[in-house]
C-alpha cells in the first residue's frame, strides 16, 4: 500500500522524541535533521487536524493512544504497553480499524514525502559545498579524467552506447493515480515552502511581513491536498485495465522524463566541454505490448498505447514550440538570419502583417501548424491553439527535427546562443530521444503460444499435422525450410482460432505502427520461456508471415541481385529477443544462441537488420528457482558465456553483431531489485560494453520518478 515510513514515529507530536546521543553527534544530527523534523511535524499536525475534523475528537485520541503505546513498546520494550496495544487493537470494530489503518498509512506516505524532500535538500547543500555523490555523473567523469581519458573520447564512446530503462506493467504498485498526483503536489508545495523560508533569511525577520502570509497560504494548500487524500479512496475496487496502466506510465513522462532527460544531456555536454553527445539514453515500455499471462493485451491495446504515447509527446512539443514562438520575437530589421531560415519562414502559412518582419515567429507558427496536423493525423487529437489552421502534417519526427535545427543554426550563426540553450536545444534533444513514439514498446509472448499458433497454421496449410509433437531437430528443419520459402502459410478463406487470429493481428499491427510512428516505436520481440532454437525460428516465421521479415532467409542468388530493384536479400524489422528465466534456461542460453547463429543465413539476416541482438535475463524466476545466491551465480556465468559466443562469431568472419543484455530486474531483492547503479557495476567484466536495458517495475517507478527532483537524482545514477 505504501512504503513504510523510514523515520521514527512522530505522528501528531509537536516535539520529536529522541534517544540520547553524544553531545557533538547529537548537535550535528539535530542541525541536519531540523528541516526534516519541521516538515514531518507540519504534515503530521495537518493530518491530525484533518482527522479530528473529519472523524471526530474520539477517533483522533484513539489514534494518538495507539501511537503512544506502539512507541513505548518499540523504544523501551515496555511489555505492559505491548499487552495494552494488543488488547486495544483486538477490540476495534471493523470501521474503526479501517480508520486507524488509513491514518497510519497516510502518515507513512507523508513522512516519506518529507524524507524525499530532505534528501533533495541535503543533496543541494552537498553540491554547493563541492561534494559529489558516488554514482553521480560528476564522480564518473572525474574518474575518467584522472585516468587520462579525454572528453572527446568519452563523447565518441557514448556515440556507440545504448542505455534504456523499460517501464513494465507488473502490478506491484497498488496506489491509485489520484493518490500519486495529490502526493506529487504536496511534494511541490514542500519545495515551495523551502523557497519561501530561504527568501525570508535575506531580510530581517522583524520587518518581513510577506513570508508569514506566504507560509500560511502554503500551509492551506497542503491542508487541502491532505484533506483530498483523506477523502479519496485509497485502493481500487476494480482491476486496472491496460488503458489505466498506460495512463499511469504516461504520467511519469509528463512529470519527469520529457523534462529531465534533456537536462541530463545538457549536463553531460557541459561537463565534456560542449562536445556533442549522442542520444544514447532511450525509454522503453512493455505496457500495451506484453501479452505473456495477460489476455487483455491485444492489437487494440497496442494501438491505443502508441496513440496515447504519441499524443503525450506531440502535445509536449506543441507547448514548447508555442513558447518558443513567444520568445523568439526577433525582428529582421535588427538581426539577419540564414537563407534556410528565411526559406522556412517563407513557407509558413502565417500572413499576419504584425509579424511580417519576424521570421522566427512566422517559421514557428508554420512548424506549429504542421505539428498540430501531425497530432490529428496520428492520434485524432486537436491542438490547444491555432494561429493558423493545422496543415501539411510532418510525415516523421526527422522532418520536425530538421526544421528545429534550421532555426538553431540560424540563431547560432547570428550570436543567438543564449536563445538556443534555454528551450530550443532541450526541445531538439527531446525529439531526438522520444521521436513521435515517446518510448519503444516491446512485444512479449510465451513460447508455447507461438508453438500453438504455428501448429495451427501448418495443420490448416496441410504442411505438418502434428507440429507440436515433433522433436526439436525436425521442428528446426521444417522452420528453416519455410523461412527459405517465399510463399505465406495462411490459407485464404480458412477459419483460424481466436488465439491465432489475435497473435497474427499483433504482428500485423506492429508493422502498421512502425510505419505510422517510426521504426523505433516497436523494435523488440521478447520470447518468454525460451528453451530451444525453434522458439526463436517460430517468431522469425511469424514476422515473415505479415511482412515484418522480407525476402527468404538464405537465398544463394541474392548476392548477385543485391543491387537490383528486385533483390531478395532478407531483412527483419523486429529483434528476436530470447528470455532465459529458470536456472536450467540460463545454463542453456549460450548453447541455444550458438546453435541459432550456426544456422545458414541467420547471422547474415541479423547483420543486415541492424546487427543488434538483445538477450533478456530473468531475475525473478531464477531467484524462485534456485535462490538468490544460485540465481546470481548462474546469471553471471550465462552473461560470460553469451559474450564468448558473440566474440567467437566476430572472430571467425565478418559477422560483427552488437550483443545487448536486457536485465529483467524487479522491485524486491528476491526479484533482482536494488540500486541500478550498483547493479550495473556488478555485471561481469566485459559484458556491458556501453549497451544495457533494464526493467523498472511497480512501486520502483513511483519511488524513482514520481517527483521530478528525485528523478534528477535517479538520472545522475544511470
What would you note in describing this structure?
This protein is an alpha/beta fold and 718 residues long. It contains 25 helices and eleven strands. The strands form two sheets. A nine-stranded parallel sheet has the order 3-2-1-11-10-9-8-5-4. A two-stranded antiparallel sheet has the order 6-7. Helix 9 packs across helix 14 and helix 13 (397-413) runs antiparallel to helix 14 (417-434). It is globular and about 90 Å long. The two termini are 27 Å apart.
What kind of sheet is the major sheet?
9 strands, parallel
Distance between the termini: 27 Å
- List how many beta strands DSSP finds: 11
- The Rg value, from CA coordinates, equals 29 Å
**How many domains comprise the coordinates?**
3
The number of helical runs is: 25
How large a portion of the residues is in β-strands, by DSSP E?
Answer: 5-15%
Helix content: 55-70%
* Overall mean pLDDT: 87
As laid out across the biggest beta sheet, the strand order is 3-2-1-11-10-9-8-5-4
Low-pLDDT segments, ≥5 res? 4-11, 13-22, 713-718
Sum up the overall morphology in one term: globular
Q: Which structural class matches the secondary elements?
A: alpha/beta
